[in-house]
Structure formats: structure tokens, C-alpha cells
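The records we work with from here on pair a chain with its fold. Taken together, the C-alpha cells spell out the fold as the letters spell out the chain. The record below shows the convention in full.
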Amino acid sequence: MSGALPPGGKLNLDALRRTFGISVSSVREGIGKLVTDGLVTFEEHRGYRIAPVSGPHLVEVTVLRAELEGLALRQSIARGGVKWESDVLGALYRLTHTSRDGDGDGAVGGAGGAAQGSSVQGSFAQGNAGQKNLAQKSLAQSWEAVHRAFHRSLLVQCGMPQLLQFCDVLHHQHERYRRMDRALGAAATGDRDADAEHSAIADAAVKHDAALAVQRLDAHIRRNGAALLDRLGAAGALPPAG
């Protein structure tokens, strides 16, 4: 998901084995999980490849993520107690105190304006030349980890393991587009304040105001998806919420 390999790029199992110092069977097991999550594809006589990306796919991922995370959040609020509330607030604190190197949560704005190109894959190829240095990537990866943990903390008490698994897969797929956006050189968040959005979601959740929390989460996810579509120059449009 880091964007080191372009969409459609072929995966060399032996090279992966040498890079990570693990057995081929372990590599196959890991890739099998990525296939299940829709991040890698497999075709007879062609082998494993990085899954393609597109505007319509990003739209689908965004809509499904908004709908399913909303359902999970509503159930989590109904079932969550004091420990869940404290876990959500702790995850929020870590998120708002972790640097993301100036990159937004899929936000528009910043130097360079909208990405040029008629497709996500074309934009990705153009952006590869301007990828950030290793230290900046490390910061971005740290932020992605705590960002993922915050969103999961909201949902973890839903009591539906399969729903939670679906939400994890969709978050990973959304995260992949956000990392591609970062590889294009995304800078400031424009007039958005992602920390404020996360705080507003958490505030409504721990107050057990399910309707408001779900509304804020839905708007947050759809806003991110629309911004990513715009920045990546992708075809497609998000339908209105519910």
C-alpha cells in the first residue's frame, strides 16, 4: 500500500522472499491475504500483480466504506461502555499528536493544484518521480497507522466480526488511494481541518449520539473520497449520501 509498486505491476515471489528474508510459502500466504483484500490480483499464466485502480473503484470503495462503517459505528455506540469510550479518546489523542508531514487526509489544496491526467494510473505514474524521501515516508506511515487505529476504535464494539473485517478491507483500499495522493506531492489540507473532523466524530460517539456520530463519519469519508477523486484526476462522482 505504500505505493512503491505501480498498479498492474508484477510481483516477483523470489524477489519478495529475498527482500523480507522469509520462505516462499510465507510470501504466498501473505500475498493470498492481499488477494482476498483486493489489493493484489492473480491470473493464470500471468501470476500476481498489483490490483488496478480507477475512479469508479474509488467511488465504490468510498460509498461502501461510508455505509458499512456507519452501520458498525451505530452498533458500537449501542454496545460500548466506559472502556470503549476511553479507548476512542486515547486513539484520538494519538492521532491528533502524530505528525503526518503536512499531508492531508485525502484533502484538496496545496502547491501544484489538482493533478493532471485522465486516469488515476496515469497520475500515479507522473507522481512517482516526486516521491518523498525515506524520513518523510516513515512519518506518513506512522500517521496512517494511528489513523487506521482511530477509525477501528470507533467500530470495534459493533459485535459483528465479519462486518468489522469488511470495514478493515475497505479502509485498506481507501488508504491505498490516499498514499497514491501523497506520492503525487499532496501538501496542505486547504480549508479542511481533518483533526477537527476526527474530534467531532469521537465527541458524538462517546456521548452516544449515534445519529450525529454516523452523520459526521459519513460526511468525513465522502469528503475524503471526493477530494481524492479531484486530486488524482479520476473519472467518477460520488452519489449523495443516503
In short: Residues 102-118, 123-136 have pLDDT under 50 and may be disordered. The chain is about 60% helix and 5% strand. The radius of gyration is 18 Å. Residues 55-79 form the longest helix (25 residues).
